[in-house]
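Final report, closing paragraph on structural work. Over the funding period we assembled a curated collection of sequence-structure pairs, and we close with a single example.
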Amino acid sequence: MKLRDKVVMIAEAGSASGMALIDRFAPEGARFILNSEAGTDALVPALEKLHAAGCPAIAAGADLCSPRETAALLDRAERELGTVDVLIHNRRAVRPAMVETCDEERFLSVLNANAKSAFVVTQAVGRQMAAKRSGKIVYIGSIHAEKPTGASFAYSVSQGAIKMLCREAALVLGRHGINVNLIELGPLEGDDVRFRSGISALYEDYRYKVPNAVLGTYADVANLALYLSSAEADFLNGADVRLDGGFLMHYMDHKMKRPQHETTGGAP
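Its predicted structure, as stored:
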């Protein structure tokens, strides 16, 4: 088991990525701190699944933008499970926001949900990890740290902030034996709706802009996160791992890999 008795904190455990992480990490012997902005009710299915499998776990609805609430959660977890060995920050809130019309409240709501929560929880968990001179921090971010969405500039700004937070934290926390890395997640099912834009065609026919015309899944994310959380990745620090199937390398639409009936005009 790669994570036997390791305490894993998942920042947004009630999300699709959170559930995939739980499914992948549980067989590896992890103990879980499950948090959700939506509150503990959203975590009941995950908690029941883990308890049935004999995996120690606690659930919380802490506001990770609040140093006080974050510290209280970590104090409780230390009493019940131990200090954090692995932090997975997987908050990726998206709200439509255009540069010329977005108000300050909307901009800050996205920045806080994604980037501020990453900073606050990294600082708090980093202290625990530094004291024992070991730990893994994995941010699940986005390719939109590099490429505009055309739908939510605030989301892209938040992802760029997380990318640089990863590098800065790796530089400092790495001196204490802590690895900090980023998964830049590419297109998943439903992202054409999530990033629908009136000015960008990026997500039109987006599945065919992946060279093999196959979208990623949250299981793919969980597999990579497990590697980054394990001893196998001990020499990987401050890395941006792009998990997008080659989406950002797309060049010309007429070169896309489409099903044969679409290229020949035949019936499906």
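The radius of gyration is 19 Å. The helical segments are 16-25, 44-52, 67-80, 104-132, 153-173, 191-194, 218-229, 260-264. We thank the funder for supporting this effort.
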